[in-house]
TrEMBL record:
<dbReference type="Pfam" id="PF01370">
    <property type="entry name" value="Epimerase"/>
</dbReference>
<feature type="region of interest" description="Disordered">
    <location>
        <begin position="270"/>
        <end position="293"/>
    </location>
</feature>
<protein>
    <submittedName>
        <fullName>SDR family oxidoreductase</fullName>
    </submittedName>
</protein>
<dbReference type="InterPro" id="IPR051783">
    <property type="entry name" value="NAD(P)-dependent_oxidoreduct"/>
</dbReference>
<feature type="region of interest" description="Disordered">
    <location>
        <begin position="114"/>
        <end position="135"/>
    </location>
</feature>
<dbReference type="InterPro" id="IPR001509">
    <property type="entry name" value="Epimerase_deHydtase"/>
</dbReference>
<feature type="domain" description="NAD-dependent epimerase/dehydratase">
    <location>
        <begin position="3"/>
        <end position="215"/>
    </location>
</feature>
<dbReference type="InterPro" id="IPR036291">
    <property type="entry name" value="NAD(P)-bd_dom_sf"/>
</dbReference>
<dbReference type="GO" id="GO:0005737">
    <property type="term" value="C:cytoplasm"/>
</dbReference>
<dbReference type="GO" id="GO:0004029">
    <property type="term" value="F:aldehyde dehydrogenase (NAD+) activity"/>
</dbReference>
Length: 293
């Protein structure tokens, strides 16, 4: 299969490109910069230059492909306004990619987050939130999945709060970055809230499986660790960086503060049983041992 990939140089995307190529697929990848183009070509992908906001470029990439994996997202998380702008850009991109595939029964796999379920681990049957700070993202994913009725094999892989590789990435990576800036390995609340996690290399396998075999209109959970207590995560970060571990205000983490403070465990039992996905790489707490001061 010739696959068009956006976000192919990120923590998840670079692993997905490698996984696809290793499985015998070919890849056409969107590149925003000369550096991204270089990295993608070195990995063995064909490159299409453009930004996520270049909707004509996205449409052309989708039209050239047998399938699409959409991973790109803005990198500015400094404020609620910046986060909202990134979500709006992603929403327009998803709409464009989905419409380019109408009527061809070609697959498109997009990324979203695992939902929150009060008092328990969320499952694949739980809906993604469509209100709150990231509600637009949920609405966009739902709109894409609804294109199944128009001949698009659209599926969603829901990612946990931390996607990690060599100790970096995801919410745990943001926590470590905040610790380096402030000199404190901080966590909001009492630290008992749980974050699910997955190694990027395991997540990449699930994206490939969804692309190859998932039915249209379905959602899957890329969850290896159902939920690590945030305080436990902060303690490993503090020990690795040589910093004190303390509770800090939610505002320390900007627009993610309220999300960081939530208890959000998630299950992937249905995904494992149905698609045969089996995570094999180190857990989050094990991988954080690779953090460098």
């Amino acid at each position: 299969m010739h696959v068009f990939v956006t976000g192919g140089t990120g923590t998840i995307g670079s692993a997905v490109v490698s996984e696809l190529l290793g499985a015998g697929h070919t890849v056409l990848a969107l590149a925003r910069s000369a550096g991204s183009e270089r990295a993608l070509k070195e990995a063995g992908a064909e490159v299409l230059r453009g930004e996520l906001a270049d909707l004509d470029v996205l449409r052309a990439g989708a039209e050239r492909a047998d399938g699409v994996i959409s991973l790109a997202f803005g990198r500015d998380y400094s404020s609620q306004e910046a986060l909202a702008a990134g979500i709006a850009e992603e929403s327009a991109a998803l709409k464009t990619l989905g419409e380019a595939l109408i009527g061809g029964d070609r697959p498109i796999v997009t990324v979203s987050g695992t939902p929150w379920a009060p008092g328990r681990a969320s499952t694949e049957a739980d809906p993604v939130p469509t209100d709150g700070p990231v509600g637009q993202r949920g609405r966009s994913v739902n709109a894409l999945l609804a294109l199944a009725s128009r001949g698009v094999c659209a599926t969603s892989v829901r990612m946990p709060r931390t996607v990690h590789n060599r100790g970096e990435g995801g919410f745990a990576g943001l926590l470590a970055a905040a610790a380096r800036r402030s000199g404190i390995a901080g966590y909001p609340g009492d630290g008992t809230q749980r974050w699910p996690a997955v190694h990027a290399l395991d997540a990449a396998v699930l994206f490939r499986l969804a692309l190859e075999s998932a039915p249209a209109g379905t959602a899957w959970h890329a969850v290896a660790d159902e939920g690590d207590a945030v305080r436990d995560i902060a303690e490993v970060v503090g020990r690795r960086l040589g910093l004190p571990v303390e509770t800090v205000p939610e505002e320390t983490f900007g627009p993610f503060g309220p999300i960081f403070a939530m208890d959000q465990p998630a299950s992937s039992a249905h995904t494992r049983e149905t698609l045969g996905w089996q995570p094999k790489h180190p857990s989050l707490l094990e991988d954080l041992e690779n953090l460098r001061p």
